[in-house]
Amino acid sequence: MTELRCEETCVQIKLDFDKRVPVKCPYCSTKLAKNKVGKSCAMDCPMGGANTVFILFPTYQGRCSNCQRFVTTRPKEIHPTKTATWRYMRLVSSWVGIAPANQIGKLFSISGSTVRNYDKEVLKEDTPPPKLDGIRALLVDEKSIRKKHNYVTVVINADTGEVLYMAEGKKGVTLDGFFEQLSNSQKASIQAVGMDRGGAYRKSVKKHLPDAAIVFDHFHLKMNINTAVDEVRRAEWRKADHSEKKFIKSSRYLLLSNQSNLDDSGLQKLKLLQEANESIATAYLLKEQFSAIYQYKREGWARKYLENWCELAESSGLKPFQKLAKSFRKSANEIVSYVKHKITSGKIEGTNNLISRIVHRACGVTDLGYLYTRLRHDSVMRSV
């Protein structure tokens, strides 16, 4: 440092080359022949009462005789293309998870777009590449990020929650992009892939991981069961007389909740409802019985239980459950695979919630690369 100038609103720090150290190429460290000497400026972290600090420094421009590049030297602490130091950019980036970019920009007297650019550069520099070796299981899901059904496909490590991949679209070809970047040994380690029953990704998984099991998320399956219960309740409400309609209409929470979440009053109302309507009682019983499949420790026993459940659903005479039974029979392998691999959508639902918060805080997202980098960073920090 050769000069420090303090003014009312800012501080200026002037640097000069250390003449004892030769100027070197930033890429290969070869001594650089001086071609042109220039000056440049970069913003640095606030100091004392000054919110704005400028660092003035000289630059050498020349051609490296070793790597044959035209280069402009800068101190290592200053970003190679931005007019800011790395520590200043990291300070700005540390606020992004707390407040909207425009508000952070006002705090540092920069624009909101500059805040996002700084954050993106810091995340790219500080976030390690995805760990693709030794993955046991994956979770795959689609997430809406814009209006008019604009979706991205997200892939995470089912054990650690680390975000491994994100691309625009929700078809099998979108997921192909992830598998195509894996080596044969990386694919061979993957034993299972968890997803919902939508089926958009099944073809891609079967194509690239023929030996991996597909596991249908049991939370989504329970949602399907709850939907069937509610359809039965609505059908019974339409058939009921005036005195019964109000009783049935207010019973949705009772039927869809776990019994452990109901108080004594709720349990009593549930009992009365089951005694008053046989169809609703049957639907509720089928819902409770289905959950028992996840208590088995062997796939064979779980498969046998699922077949028995499907027979009961078909003989119940309730169309929503008859339709489910037909569908569950076709997907028996994917349903009972949970018993062996024990993977659920919990971690990927957490990732989807994180996407929603980022999109909401940014008032929309146009740069998917930035969104992916932010997701990767946050997921890596959570998994440490």
Distance between the termini: 39 Å
The figure for the number of domains is: 3
**Biggest sheet record:** 5 strands, mixed
- Helix and strand succession? EEEEEHHHEEEHHEHEHHHHHHHHHHH
Query: Which residue ranges are poorly predicted, with pLDDT under 50 across at least 5 consecutive positions?
Result: none
Strand content: 15-25%
Description:
The protein has helices at 86-94, 101-108, 112-126, 172-179, 184-188, 202-208, 218-239, 242-249, 252-256, 264-276, 278-290, 299-315, 319-330, 332-336, 338-341, 346-361, 368-383; strands at residues 3-6, 10-14, 36-44, 52-63, 70-72, 137-146, 150-157, 163-168, 192-195, 213-216. By secondary structure, the chain is an alpha/beta fold. It has 3 domains: 3-126, no CATH class; 137-214 and 344-383, 2-Layer Sandwich (Nucleotidyltransferase, domain 5); 218-341. The strands form 2 sheets. Strands 1, 2, 3, 4 and 5 form a 5-stranded mixed beta sheet that branches. Strands 8-7-6-9-10 form a 5-stranded mixed beta sheet, sandwiched between helices. Helix 4 (172-179) runs parallel beside helix 6, helix 7 (218-239) packs antiparallel against helix 8 and helix 7 (218-239) runs antiparallel to helix 11 (278-290). It is elongated, with a radius of gyration of 30 Å. The two termini are 39 Å apart. 29% of the residues are buried.
